[in-house]
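Step 1: inspect the first sequence and its tokens.
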Amino acid sequence: MSLEFILRLIGMIVLALGGLRLGVSLAALAGEAPETWAITTSMVGALAGLILTPYFTTRPARLIHEQLNKMPPQQLVASVTGLVIGLIIGALAAIPLSMLPQPYNGILPLIVAAVCGYFGATTFAVRRRDLLGMFRLWPSFRVGDEGAGLTPNRQVLLDTSVIIDGRIADISVTGFINGPIVVPNFVLNELQHVADSSDPLRRNRGRRGLDVLNRLQKEAPVPVIITDADYEGVFDVDEKLILLAKSMGCAIVTNDYNLNRVAEIQGVLVLNVNELANAVKVIFLPGETIVLNIVQEGKEIGQGVGYLDDGTMVVVEEGRRYLNQTVETVVTKVFQTSAGRMIFARPVG
């Protein structure tokens, strides 16, 4: 038996009894027998209680619960703090107001308390980072402060692309991310949508992303938090991520170039896995030797192409004759391009 059904029954009984008393009173005013009036009004009251009770009990409670689940924790704490401070101010203001003559001494204190509580909650919710930053309570949650960077308390948001990519699990295990990892439910929904795709390639990528997330929850040295925070009326996942990052003061971990640029323009700290991979690639200088497996022909005549363990392409002049062979090469030139690092070499001897 559900709570809503029990409340419907209670509302039906209460309003039926109220209707019964109302019917008796109306019958006395009309000078008629009370039975007909009492039966009619009690039946109307019972029907109204059965239908309307959920709209005054469970429905508002469910709506409040959903809104609280969607609200980021920092915003919730700030709103409650502002509400308490506003009510304290309202209580202090009620002392002189209670000395006014009737009926103002009974009405004005309630109105002032309600107004102060409302403005306190909304002010702290909207300006929480500025207000709390003044008291140095949450300095790590200031958006757009490049000097703050990552701290042990600063959360990071994962987008769908970086979860599917998979390298975030290895990065997390090494300890480079030392703050809590947050995965929004709308990212999980997109990941599940990819895993349920009819396209085998997309389906495999989505399932790999789910496996990576499962590994993160088991092996990551920091907490992995699934949040229900969402934004009604916003359908783009990237836009939701940016709004959530600004609201929570988080950094976004991604390998999506467009999301990277848009987030940076809006003052959100972005950690790009591709940029990290390029930054930690092994640096070879001209004159150093590399043992390389030539796997394919190059674009120019006589060239061969091999790859380092990190995926860096090495173009070997006169390397075509060593196709499918392992050969020792010497580096001749190194180029840094927007796509990554490219190395030119030639066979030794």
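Step 2: inspect the second sequence and its tokens, then contrast the two.
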Amino acid sequence: MLLEEVMQELEAMGSASTRKIYDNHGARGPGFGVKVGDMKKILKKTKKDHALALSLYETGNTDAMYLAGLMGDARKVTSQELDHWAKTATFYMVTEYAVAGLAAESPHGWDLALQWIDAPEDHVSSAGWATLGGLVSVRDDQDLDLDVLSQLMQRVVQTLAQAPNRTRYTMNGFIIGVGCYIAPLLEKANAAAEAIGKVNVDMGGTRCKVPMATDYIKKVVDMGRLGKKRKKVRC
């Protein structure tokens, strides 16, 4: 499909009600208000088309940018492209889900995540912690540095209260990810979850809630799914 064709389909799928929801969640800039499930109908046609994904992202349209993150090829995307995407995104759904998911599935995710979490911009640092949360869900434990992950959990405990809004959300998600997907670090993750307690995040007046890390991890353990990795991050 051509860029123009994809944009036309996105526009046809958009709705004012969905756009309002995204606006309430902090979306900035142009967008049609397309549900993620509808975007996947386009994705079935394009498959992984990295060149098209790059063009979609540069439109600045929030729906196109999210779709670009889903469409991007983790084997082809460069560190520079991911860094550009994270820094120019205009909606946390783009950075924390589409971009972070692509980064986590790429060979560049670990290094970029460690850079991003030090960024002063909320949308960049939140993408870093989201990428780390994605990485632990798909990479084998032997391919992860468990000592560094332990140190990062302590960093969350020590700094979450002073972190920017969306960064607090993805820090919490990182603790949950470690506790659910890395069995050897369960005890440390539970201790970190207890230490951060209830995390307060401004959700833009919506009904969305921040999950309690302690409860979430316990639920996964009780289900017998501790340490069971996912096949992919993006969904």
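Step 3: confirm your contrast with the notes below.
Residues 1-73 form one domain. The two ends are 21 Å apart (CA to CA).
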